[in-house]
Amino acid sequence: MSSSSSVAAGQPPGSRISTMILAIAAFVIVTTEFLMVGLLPALARDLSISVSTAGQLVTLFAVVVMVFGPPLTARLAHVERKRLFLGVLALFAASNALAALAPNFWVLALARIVPALALPVFWGTASETAAQLAGPKRAGRAVATVYLGISAAMLLGIPLGTIAGDAIGWRGAFWALAMLSLLVAVLLQCFMPALPGSQRVSLAQQARILRDPAFVAHVLLSVAVFTAMFTGYTYLAELLEKQALVPAAQVGWWLMGFGAVGLLGNWLGGIWVDRKPLAATAAFSALLALGMLATVVLARQHAGLVLALAIWGIANTALYPICQIRVMKSAPQAQALAGTINVSAANGGIALGAVLGGASISWWGVASVGVAGAAVAAVAAVAALVMARRFVQR
């Protein structure tokens, strides 16, 4: 446990400011990770590759996070938090600049590997830091505040990046992200106090949580949830263009609406996860399946499509804090590592989802990604209910 946990009970005034700065940093980090979703069509055209091939950049990012996240976080969890977060933002600024300069697919792939190494370190330590500052009774809401960065990225970052990509090119969008990363680093340097890291604990000692079957079950559930989410979301821009016949110049605005309703999902997820984490996972996974299926069915009826995307967006964003807090609660003795393992599991799901969605497009067309994602979401909902029943019995 971090020595900052002693601060949590008193809730110093600076704790809220620190949490909000972490939320802003999360906005930049999530926008960097998922901006590719909105830029896939334009990027594929410019680099003369297929959308399915370009989509594997999402897979690459996720696989790197999945493989390197836990050991890197375990090694760096003791580092003073402000210094650690500044280093993460510097890496994101450099990698976005490299992406903007990338002359081909392979250099762009390299530019995606660098931030993928830093992302899980941020999420594992930022979630733990916010939870410790807030105290156990408000941990869920504090982490949900940090996760507002995800909602803000979906509301503004990814859609505006898509719009900017259409207006100034996808390279210009990455340049804008590089500058924004540096700006947030300056804010963090000026306003965030120094926060002690966790006590240095060996990786082997932290990894004992992997011996707990309940913890492993929670992690596998996150894999299923994120596979469902990103089977569809990775190709949402393509789905809107090809299936719903939304003009390319308007896709960014549709993605902005998707992110806007996600604010409600983030709020609901932050409240309900503190009460019944598994029940909340089941409910929002079922809602996710419904939204994905409805989007495919109502793609040509724009009034119905708005409602379907609203359901999808609420469920999609709610599941981010729900999965993170659910896994962290299952391993209170090693929350930083548990949080990072969940991020790695989530990125494993993202990678699987991107692959599944890409294969689905190749075999059955773009509309099939909604059906495939809904099927996996239904499985996740059932699994969560089964886990809830067994854990209550135990």
TrEMBL record:
The chain crosses the membrane at residues 21-43, 49-72, 84-107, 113-134, 146-168, 174-195, 215-236, 251-271, 278-299, 305-323, 335-357, 363-388. Residues 18-392 form the Major facilitator superfamily (MFS) profile domain. Keywords: Cell membrane, Membrane, Transmembrane, Transmembrane helix. Pfam families: MFS_1. It comes from the Bacteria. Its main location: membrane. It is a multi-pass membrane protein. It is found in: Cell membrane. This is MFS transporter. It comes from Comamonas endophytica.
